[in-house]
Amino acid sequence: MKQILALFLLLMVTACGLLPEVQDETKNWSAQKLYTSAKEEMNDSNYEKAIKYFETLEARYPYGRYSQQAQLEIAYAYYKSSEPVSAIAAADRFIKLHPNHPYVDYAYYLKGLVNFNEDKGLFAVLSDQDMTQRDPKAAREAFESFKELVTRFPDSKYTPDAAARMKYLVNALAYHDVHVARYYVKRGAYVAAANRAQSVVKNFPQSPAQEEALALMVKSYDALGLKELRDDAHRILKLNFPKSAYLTGYSPETKDWWKFW
Hints:
This protein is mainly α. The protein has helices spanning 2-18, 31-43, 47-60, 65-80, 84-97, 104-118, 137-152, 159-186, 190-203, 210-223, 227-240.
């Protein structure tokens, strides 16, 4: 038995010796060569190979502008290869290592963009999807990244686009909360509905979703028998949205309010 095992091991060693040695094509490449080659792979959408070159560059040449730029490029490459977790981790790492880098504004923008596109279409309020079942976590994180960019780097070339996306996100998040409040109303959970609608009024004062949020508050307070709160919400709705469809024929007594939900 020992002789058979020894023979087997000898054959394995011999076989390994016959295998061709794996050659590292980048062995003698300079930092510039690695960076240029990685960018070429990026341009050809070969993101996995680009990431490999960038990581090799950073490992071999940890200091200097090529290494720093490679760290930022890695984040973008992960984003383009649809790996959002890795992209955000790489962007966070760049921000931590180089908080004063001239391109750190782009790292914040990229973080926001990754989360924004992660939830792209999530808040399509006209879709048939049940909005109450969706998690707006990525949208909130995108908003925070864009907000930090706009606050810290008001003159950044990425700030105008970030500000526009923030406006969309505010409306999207507000409508999400309105959908949740509507969901609660349909199920008779009026306290939860009123609280969620009230959060829209409080947190998203410029959003068009305020109109329905106020209407949901009126309905919920009415159902709960809280007439004073109901009338306050109705007064604010009438003041801010005098032509609102929710005001047409409204009467708690006749319950015409129900037709909207």
